[in-house]
Amino acid sequence: MPAEGILTIEERLICSTLGAGQCRAMACNLEHRDLKILPWANVAAYLTRNGKSPPNAKGSALCLLPLPAEPGFVVHHSNRYSEFSANRRDIWHGSDMTGEGQVRSEWNRLLLWDVISPLYAQVLLAARGLIGPGEDFNRLWPTRILSDIWNVVRSRVYQLSEN
């Protein structure tokens, strides 16, 4: 909390979209209507605090409320319609599932691939125009991951950035 009379101004860049691709096709599939899934998400980046580099911020995974799961990125992923693990500490993922668990895992992978990753690339493109090249811009790139599921985002963002 700033001292009385001192104003703190933080600049954040937020991109939001209703996704397309396989993610939207899955959401529109009548077989999955009971899941009430929606291919919508926001991605936000912390750009400045009082006109200077922001403090080292950790990105977080959110789904209307913060999750304990950390992707390892600086960019924040927020308000996406993910399916949670049973302990609600991470998003549902894994390749060894069957039935509804497999559907939930596939939904999360598609949401990260078709919605979060393109938004992340859009945030990077906009941030480059707002803060220019340099250390503040470079720190926004997804270089570190804390869980295998987040590698989907990292690999897709770099793939999209090549174009």
Tell me briefly what this model is:
The protein has four helices and five strands; from the N terminus they run βαββββααα.
Please outline the helices and strands:
Blueprint: E1 10-18, H1 21-28, E2 40-49, E3 62-63, E4 65-66, E5 76-78, H2 99-131, H3 135-138, H4 151-162
Antiparallel strand pairs: 1-2, 2-5, 3-4
Arrangement of strands in the largest sheet: 1-2-5
Number of helices: 4
Total domain units: 1
Secondary structure: helix percent: 25-40%
SSE order in H/E notation?
EHEEEEHHH
Could you tell me the radius of gyration in angstroms?
A: 17 Å
Q: Strand portion, in percent?
A: 15-25%
- Ranges with pLDDT <50 over ≥5 residues? 85-89
Structural class: alpha+beta
Distance between the termini: 42 Å
Shape: elongated
Number of strands: 5
Mean pLDDT, to the nearest integer, reads 79
- Specify the biggest β-sheet: 3 strands, antiparallel
